[in-house]
Amino acid sequence: MRKRICLFLLAVAAAGPAMADPYEDVAAATKKSDFATAFKILKPLAEKGEARAQSELGLVYMVGKGVPLDRKEGIKWIKLSAENGFAPAQANLGTMYLEGQFTPQDYKEAMKWSLLAADKGVAEAQSNIASMYYDGAGVAQDYKEAAKWMRLAAKQGDPESQVNLGTMYLLGQGLERDPLRAYMWASIGLESLSMPPEQKKEMLDLSAQALPAADIAKATELAKKCKESKLKDCD
What we know:
The chain is an all-alpha fold.
């Protein structure tokens, strides 16, 4: 199963209600690549214990924008944010432990933080849990459990999870084999994935090979219905 690379985004991936003014200012500064101003806003908020500010300050240090690159300091703030219950920080921390990226690889910690974020609805964390069960990474391999978490992430719009769920339907891993839904999920996910068109076509063709030609139209209609329902009517 393809694993997720840890990507750090500044001031744009926060969960919860509309942004408060300081974070609007951070977002505006970041949009103008004025990371020094973003840092000046975030640092005092983080020091006061605001979990979101701690997370975003950690990301600033991790990418070295507006401050010297300092991943040790970045991880410190991300951990503080995660411990204070901020779901995006928990998801990032889980991914770092899963991949051994900027931290020693630790599947137990990866599962711990990913579960906390996944229970708050973070698709990336749900996908990481699915990957761990699929690969048997730190847990007993369990395709059924992997499919459960992969479906949750897919129905939230995570394109990698949608393609991976399609693969599991195609192979009958953890759920009943269903080439129609394999094609449906693959086509939905591939629309959003960033890759060359010829590669997308090649991947979709793999799903199409399991279907009679007449069923391609049925699978395409299922995909349309699923998207029109905002991923609610996809079963």
